Amino acid sequence: MGGRLARVFRTFNVESRARREISKEKPTPAPRHPTSRLDALADHPEIQKEIYRKDDRLLTLLKDVYVESRDPPARVKDGGGEHLPCKQEEKRLTKLGHLGDLDVKKVPKGKISIVEALTLLNNHKLHPQIWTAEKIAAEYSLELKEVKSLLEFFIPFAVQEFPKDTKKAI
User: Fold this and answer.
1) Considering the entire predicted model, what is its pTM?
2) Cα gap 149→39, rounded to integer Å
3) CA angle, 121 as apex, 158 and 140 as ends, to 5°?
4) Where is this region: Disordered (predicted)?
């Protein structure tokens, strides 16, 4: 309701208000301060003399300044578009499972590949006493805190097949 009322006041007599604004003369600019006028300099010839006078002391100081500039060496653009890493990351070989051909071969330390993540989650699910967070962290060069978070928040799916005779019961 408030929006309709506001729209009514906003659109009331719009055309005549627009015509009135368009038909107005160009507004006169605000008066300038007397010191900003250039004709004030014409009235005072001593100021103009001071402006155009050369100062010998400043000229000698200016002659003592020596500036030497060189262009930076031109860079060769190979057009590759790839940025090379600034520092060499320490990499480790992956623990390849049964999907070895699909997995990457080298991974930076502190990270794991998808296949490794699925493998370690499955190993922990099947044998939690053997595959503890400490052992996983040591095996895959990970931080213990990250491994604990991984084991807590990520659970691999379990595929269950129902016998044919119980399908109707479901």
Assistant:
1) 0.39
2) 79
3) 160
4) 17-44
